[in-house]
Design goal:
about 325 residues, Arc Repressor Mutant, subunit A, two-stranded parallel ribbon, eight-stranded mixed β-sheet, alpha/beta, Rossmann fold
Length: about 325
């Protein structure tokens, strides 16, 4: 029985715009499949061939994406894109993207065709390929939060936003890790065909109708928990169960059986952030989750330990860049 790949679900069609996904051996398949689902769903729901999805690589043929899954790609040199078309470059894990960035033929091929596109994007570490190919040089960009420091160090002309889900700078669209490619594709769809169709597609795919590009990747708590490990894991669980209560550093130190000064030093070293900031971040993450569950702002403020709704609104805006009510509305489908 022949192997089934994503290409079997992509119907060839004559349409207004072609979305070309540039891939390479070992690229993250979801960087392609997620955004592709947005564009093909737009075709289905609109009843019109708004998009054609194509996969390109160097060389052409079956491209292994790991786990026994592959895509059949056309050769980069064989395509003739137009100004209405979009190039989206996939990313991959560190070893795979490092090999791709070292592939001078791939970089040259991407560089040659890039100027023919009206819009260029990347998902996750695909931003490294755009930069290495000279396609982006001085733009504001996004990438996976883990790779942001490396991207900024290697390409100092770029302004790397380590928190944004996606960034649009002119005709360059870049997104953060993996699933944010769906957010990027939804934003492109809205730019092309309006909010109504974007909202229908989001509902069909059971994803957020809109997560603003400037919304944080929300990696800080997860990263801190990973760093803290077993030493403070029980404390973090204890804090999460008491976010509606005052949590002073002295209380946290007492729970750990340490002096306040020793606790401050050791917790900061283990988690990567001071304990007071960690508690605030936990409260904000909890508040965001409660808002997305449909609770009113006043209820959320109380459950997150704020003495007033106004104080919560101020803290939420400072942390996420939007007011809590606006955040809830943007996520409504």
């Amino acid at each position: 029985m022949a192997e089934t790949t994503i290409n079997d679900y992509i119907s060839p069609m004559t349409d207004t715009r072609t979305i070309y996904f540039a891939t390479f051996p070992g690229a993250e398949l979801l960087d392609i499949a997620g955004p592709a689902a947005v564009f093909t769903a737009a075709n289905q729901l609109s009843g019109r061939p708004l998009y054609r999805v194509d996969v390109i690589a160097l060389p052409s043929g079956e491209i292994d994406h790991g786990g026994g899954l592959g895509l059949t790609a056309r050769a980069i040199a064989d395509i003739i894109p137009g100004p209405a078309d979009t190039l989206v470059v996939a990313g991959g894990y560190e070893a795979e993207i490092t090999r791709a960035v070292a592939d001078t033929d791939l970089l040259a091929g991407l560089g040659r065709i890039a100027r023919q596109f009206g819009r260029i994007g990347s998902v996750c570490s695909g931003t490294f390929l755009l930069a290495a190919a000279g396609i982006i040089t001085d733009q504001r960009v996004a990438t996976h939060w883990r790779g942001a420091p490396r991207l900024a160090a290697r390409f100092p002309g770029l302004t790397v936003d380590p928190d944004a889900l996606y960034v649009r700078d002119g005709d360059i669209w870049t997104s953060a890790g993996v699933t944010t490619g769906i957010d990027l594709a939804l934003a492109m769809l809205e730019a092309d065909h309006g909010r109504a169709l974007k909202t229908r597609v989001a509902r069909e795919l059971v994803v957020y109708a809109h997560r603003p590009g400037h919304q944080s990747q929300f990696s800080d708590v997860l990263d801190a928990q990973t760093r803290a490990g077993d030493r403070y894991g029980a404390l973090i669980d204890w804090m999460q169960d008491r976010l509606d209560q005052p949590l002073k550093v002295a209380d946290l130190a007492a729970y750990c059986g340490q002096t306040e000064r020793t606790f401050q030093r050791r917790f900061s070293a283990a988690s990567g952030m001071p304990p007071a900031r960690f508690v605030e971040t936990l409260r904000m993450k909890h508040g965001r989750d409660l808002l997305e569950a449909g609770l009113a702002v006043k209820q959320v403020a109380g459950r997150c330990g704020f003495r007033s709704e106004a104080a919560f609104r101020t803290a939420f805006r400072q942390h996420f860049g939007v007011a809590p009510g606006q955040h809830a509305r943007m996520l409504a489908v």
